[in-house]
Amino acid sequence: MKKLITFLSLMLFQIAVFACPVCERNQPKVLRGIVHGAGPESNWDYISIWFTIIIALITLFYSLKWLIEPGEKNTDHIKYSILK
């Protein structure tokens, strides 16, 4: 687990710090230092990006919500065979 956390931390650090100057210069001000590569070509790109972010956040919210508090109270539920 410690190796995984270290790996992910280094990957995030690399993305944030070591972007190439050409890509940094070609990005709009809003996205500088966040993304790498070609910038959005039209407003439809921004709409699709925000739509994807919203779906991902909703999915994350419900995944965590049902993982922490599943709401199943039946003692015969299959989850109790795993939890025992």
Unreliable stretches covering 5 or more consecutive residues: none
Q: What is the strand content?
A: under 5%
**C-alpha geometry:** elongated
Mean pLDDT across the residues is 78
Q: Helical amount among residues, as a percent range?
A: 55-70%
Number of domains: 2
Amino- and carboxy-terminal Cα gap: 24 Å
How large is the radius of gyration? 20 Å
Annotation keywords:
single chain; 84 residues; mainly alpha; 4 helices
Describe the structure.
The protein has 84 residues and is mostly helical. It has 2 domains: 1-39; 40-84. It has helices at residues 2-17, 21-26, 43-68, 79-83. The longest helix is centred in the middle third of the chain and has 26 residues, at 43-68. The radius of gyration is 20 Å and the shape is elongated. The protein starts with a helix and ends with a helix. The model has no long low-confidence stretch (mean pLDDT 78).
Give the helix/strand layout:
Layout: H1 2-17, H2 21-26, H3 43-68, H4 79-83
Short précis:
With 84 residues, this protein is mostly helical. The chain is built from four helices and no strands. The model has no long low-confidence stretch (mean pLDDT 78).
